[in-house]
Amino acid sequence: TCNVVVLISGNGSNLQALIDSQEPGGPVRIRAVISNRADAYGLQRAQAAGIETRIIDHKAFANREAFDQALIEIIDSQAPQLVVLAGFMRILTQAFVEHYAGRLLNIHPSLLPAYKGLDTHRRVLTAGEAEHGCSVHFVTAELDGGPVAVQAVIPVQAGEDIDNLVRRVHAEEHRIYPLAVRWFAEGRLRLGTRGAMLDGAPLPTNGHV
Ligand code: GAR
User: For every one of its 209 residues, what pLDDT tens digit does the chain have, with 9 covering 90 and above?
Assistant: First the structure.
């Protein structure tokens, strides 16, 4: 079994998708959910599923380094093989990222490397893009810059409003994040020296599924 720790800051709909995809005796076991915000709704989702929760308030620390060191200690007390960022809205230090090299995944609401950063849906609509989507990637020190593992692509509809686009991208996130986590847990997905690998073969940056 692959023990997983999930980090959240908010609603936790991706956490819910991961919880719902867990099967008894399956390869993935969510050991704990950690939030930097006490009011994150995802904490209630975890509790409802009987998963241990922890809160670590970044505002209680003098700087990013101190927060990340405390976060590492909480995570490592669970001895996870994989750490999953699911709407965890804190920039992580290089020390943190290197500590979890090859076992830290994030989901980002764009077709990386396009539209790194925040407010992706609005920027995609403003630019008049024909396609949008989401990406699961290994986390490296470059913000939203690590090797892409899995992407889902959707066409932007003519005249589509932002709420509709957000809803459709979320639905894709909830499909591909459990898939990527399962592949990792099964030993099929890993980070090689030149990028993400699936079943021993390099994944193209646009690893559409
Ligand atoms: C998701 O859409 C995720 O892709 C995004 O935050 C949302 C969290 O939703 N992450 C980022 O923007 C990371 N920079 P959720 O809490 O309902 O899973």
Answer: 999 999 999 999 999 999 999 999 999 999 999 999 999 999 999 999 999 999 999 999 999 999 999 999 999 999 999 999 999 999 999 999 999 999 999 999 999 999 999 999 999 999 999 999 999 999 999 999 999 999 999 999 999 999 999 999 999 999 999 999 999 999 999 999 989 999 999 987 655 55
Give distance in angstroms: CA of 108 to centre of ligand 1.
Answer: 6
* pTM for the whole structure: 0.96
Closest ligand 1 atom number to CA of residue 42: 16
ω into 113 cis (within 30 of 0): yes
Provide the annotated active-site residues.
Answer: 108
